[in-house]
Amino acid sequence: MKFLPVVCQLQKWEQKLLLVLTCVCVLLGPAVSAPRLEYRQPEAVPTVGLSPQQARAYAEVLKMRPATAKALLKDAPSSAGTLLVQDCLDIMELLVGQDARRYDATIDTQDERLTALEKLPLNALTQYARAEIRLHQAAAQVSFGHEVQGAWSLRQAYQQMQATVKRYPTYLPARKTLGMMQFFIGSLPEGYRWFLKLLGLTGSVEAGLSNLRAAARQPNDFQTEAQIILALVEETYYKKPTEALQLVGRLAQQQPDNLLFSYLLVSLNKKQHRTDAALAAYRTRPQGPAYFSLSYLHHMAADLLLYQGQYAASRRENELFLAEFPGTHYRKDAYFKLYLAAWLANDAPAAERYRRQIDAAGRTVVEEDTYAQRFFEGQLPLNRQLTRARLQIDGGYYREALATLNGFQVTAATPLRDRLEEPYRRARAWHGLGHLDSARLFYARTIALAGTAPYYFAPQSALQLGYLYQLEGQRATAKVYFQKALSYPKHEYKNSTDTKAKLALKELE
Fold first, then answer.
1. 302 and 183, same structural domain?
2. What's the domain range around 158?
3. CB neighbour burial string for 129-143, b if at least 16 within 10 angstroms, e if fewer
4. CATH number of the CATH domain containing 90
5. 21 touches 6 (CB < 8 A)
6. SS3 30
7. CA 28 from centroid of its chain's CA atoms
């Protein structure tokens, strides 16, 4: 179960919840030694797989209906397939819910499952389940602040999955998980490579994509999972949103009772600035007591309503998120968005109340929370026109954003940050409208004005110019801009910007 709303990758160097429902990936910590794995000769294609009952239970896990999944597994024999699906269910509940009270029991149960798997006959599914559950454990440990144990578990999982692929080279589920780990390790920023060497982990973007594609294109028990992971990777890092939207739209249409697919449809449409489509998917999502409470959906809906200027509705959704979600991530961001909704609605007392709560809430692990905390600490007043334009652009309302920007006036007292944000927002709006010459002009203007200012507008402008020139086949110019994006020493989104620029440079090699 790889696409969960969990913060991993070096305490979220690139955020995707996604995901949310993106991939359990790289977890780093102090170096530790691991047992030597015995090499075995490759074996023939395995015949083992999930039983029909286990497959139905796994389908219910993907639908985020825990009670139904548990009922299907209640009388199932304690086989590798049963233990694996049970663990998928437990890790979904832990990482989606982010309830720290469940952590110890989940880890203990995982240890019991791993012990039980050691006693079962060795085959592809048994060996895969061991590595998969160990990876789930690594994700849980890092997500709840146990980085040393998480690093150890990750190394075990990685080496065990490598051994599984070597022994069972045609067992596609193992290629799915190994490919995912290879990709994320291979795409880590250069500054973290020494951690990988200490851990003995070697990644490869190319090998990772090859393994993911094999598992996504050929039938296997976890083909849908592989397809989603691959689609999210290509959408996030290779600017291929069409394929991801088509896949998730098809899955949601085929299974309208699947909450995970509905979540992905909301998330991908939101990322592609398709606010109306995202809200439609949110409002038609399956609901009811049978489903796990996916509180983060309220936080996403609050953003979408904020883009539309529906400030009261946005506040209601974020208040619901904060009331229902027991975890620590996105709480600062939620209070920041509550502040924006109140401030833009001219409710000054509520805005000040929400602003103070930013500092007291949550942690600064995900980039959104870090941004919110910097806003609180910086105490730099926001510009109303620039803020509204940013929200309109995020929502895909590009012409409205340009009209809003026309109300922005530069004076001698205008802060440098605002002077840089204005051309950057114009570039983003023109880019969204497909007026690429105008977009390039304002991206270049942003870079020229910025110098080495520690804001994200210039590095993001360089990244976007790199993508534009890459699409036009001007590889040398694209390379210059991707390298420039990497050259900025400090800004709010450095980790995610650097990762995308690095992967783009690999494509140009």
1. no
2. 3-34+48-280
3. bbbbbbbbbbbbbbb
4. 1.25.40
5. no
6. coil
7. 17
CA distances from 449 to 420, 443, 497 (A): 7, 10, 19
In a shared domain, residues 273 and 301: no
Q: The domain that contains 488 carries what CATH number? A: 1.25.40.10
CA neighbor of 442 nearest in space, from 393, 497, 508, 503: 393
Pair 341, 314: CB distance under 8 Å: yes
Higher pLDDT, 444 or 29: 444
pLDDT at 15: 34
Cβ(9)–Cβ(29) below 8 Å: no
Which residue is it, tokens 């959704």? 317
The DSSP letter of residue 100 is G
> Which 3 state secondary structure label does DSSP give 4?
strand
Residue 3 bridge partners (DSSP): 23
Q: What is the pTM of this model?
A: 0.86
425 Cβ contact partners less than 8 Å away, ≥ 6 residues apart: 386, 389, 390, 393, 401, 405
The C-alpha atoms of residue 341 and residue 359 are separated, in whole angstroms, by 18
Distance of CA 90 to the CA centre of its chain: 20
* pLDDT class of 367 with cuts at 50, 70, 90: confident
**Looking at residues 220-248, what average pLDDT do you find?**
93
In residues, how long is the chain? 509
Six-digit token string for 474: 């001007």
Q: What is the mean pLDDT of the chain?
A: 88
**Residue 138 placed within a domain:** yes
Identify which of 372, 381, 371 has the alpha carbon closest to the alpha carbon of residue 413.
Answer: 381
User: Which residue(s) pair with 16 in the sheet?
Assistant: 19
Nearest to 479 by CA among 461, 462, 497, 460: 462
